[in-house]
Amino acid sequence: MAQQRQFNPYSNNGGTILAIAGSTFSVIAGDTRQTEGYNIQTRYAPKVFRLTDKAVLATNGFAADGNQFVKKVRQRLEWYRHAHSKEMPIRAIARLIQTMLYGRRFFPYYVYNILGGIEEDGSGAVYSFDPVGSYERETCRAAGAAQSLVQPFLDNQIYFKNQTPPPGQSFPAHLPLPTVLELVIDSFTSATERHIEVGDGLEMYIVLARDSGLQGLDGFQGVTEMGATPEGEKLFVLRRNLKRD
Amino acid sequence: MDHFPTNWGRPRNDAWDPYATYPIHQRPNNAPKDAFADGVQRTQQPIVTGTSVLAIKFKDGVMMAADNLASYGSLARFRDIQRLHPVGNHTVLGAGGDMSDFQYLQMILDELMVDEFAAADGHALGPAEIHNYLSEVMYARRSKMNPLWNSLLVGGFKDGKSFLSYVDLLGTTYSASTLATGYGAYIAQPLLRRAVEGREHELTADQARKILEDSMRVLFYRDARSLDQYQLATITKDGVEITESRKLETTWDFAEGIRGYGAQTQ
């Protein structure tokens, strides 16, 4: 009889991530609670990571795999920087992530990734991945513990699913930044109410396209600028408290 | 965190527990097994185990506590084991889980510190470096399906900064101002959070010592794998200080009044 391997190298550390693309911006958000079972391990463990000044990666699932994966992606981006004297564009980062995930097809990183940022053509982009590398570009995506609570809300509020526009009018293809940020905050406060693995803190990274102004970001309290590209893309972070119970 | 070290790392069934909310996390797998099937033995379960480690931040640094017991299943096998280990002059490592794996880690770290000392480059490894090194070792071993069966706390103080982080057999890491492993994650962590959160920069060493002592006492009352002998480590700008093992003061006179469990006649 083959030896039984009882050791399970995986765990699930809860939490939820979310990203929404606008026409000239991208918002990537995640809560900061890390759990295992019924325990809150810590109230602050970031799940959203700056890769470049115009690309941000959110990871969710098994935290140890997530941190290790982000470390390796950053290492590859640094090598690219040294080889080509420029930052890797986001569609290339997306393909890199798919290759790195699929490279571990038979011992996967148990991580759901969402990549957000600004495309070379200046449009806001969101790429979402499964643990073995299947990916697509989307307008919005939620993943993690409260995915099943948040994604239907986004389908309704971003894609206007199950809504009919007033006669003679149509729904906008992209929403303005302040509207999107309010939707993100509402998504996480609601998820915090109904899911025990979500809460404590909310971290929102905002990437603005070049020559697009602040797009109403100045109306929000506590915005911190995290960096800017030579071409003019800007990166900000916005933090909010979530309920800690 | 599951408090039974024998259950750590065993699979949960996602089919009926997709959100990991079922209250009883895992049970021992008693299916027949042949440890010699492929000639190589890997750690499938911890044998001689230590229970909780507690640690908190306070005004001047970090304080950590662990009892002196190493259990063999339910047998209190070794009653004078040190589970707090100094690493260099700025760091203390506290361990729960398999004690032989912990002693192996001590050996690795001591070798590392000798190598670093021999380099004589004017740099010393601080708690952050030690923790990162340990997390890589633990994650690499879990990735080889041959884990070091521990949950570890790394506490330290260097360059004016407190450091307190956790790492376990899966390579999972996190930091907080209060940390507890094993059974302590259930029983002591809420007490520690109530006492410490938001007051990390006010608590004196005496207050911190009292918080940890009270929590160790609660653990001794409730954790069947614990002991009333424990050690305290304090890490401040003055370096590492680990006390001799000390005894908890406990009272049991309330037991007189308990009815309904034993062989009382009335």
From TrEMBL, chain A:
Swiss-Prot/TrEMBL GO biological process terms: proteolysis involved in protein catabolic process
Compartments, record wording: Cytoplasm; Nucleus
Keywords recorded for this protein, A-Z: Cytoplasm, Nucleus, Proteasome
Cited Pfam families: Proteasome
InterPro entries assigned: Ntn_hydrolases_N (IPR029055), Proteasome_bsu_CS (IPR016050), Proteasome_sua/b (IPR001353), Proteasome_suB-type (IPR023333)
Primary localisation category: cytoplasm
Keyword Cytoplasm: yes
Family of the protein in this entry: Belongs to the peptidase T1B family.
Entry protein name: Proteasome subunit beta
Originating organism: Mycena chlorophos
From TrEMBL, chain B:
UniProt subcellular location: Cytoplasm; Nucleus
Domain of life the protein comes from: Eukaryota
Keyword Aminoacyl-tRNA synthetase: no
Pfam hit, one: Proteasome
Alphabetized Gene3D superfamilies for the sequence: Glutamine Phosphoribosylpyrophosphate, subunit 1, domain 1
PANTHER family noted in UniProt: METALLOPROTEASE TLDD, PROTEASOME SUBUNIT BETA
Function: Non-catalytic component of the proteasome.
Record's protein name: Proteasome subunit beta
Organism: Mycena chlorophos
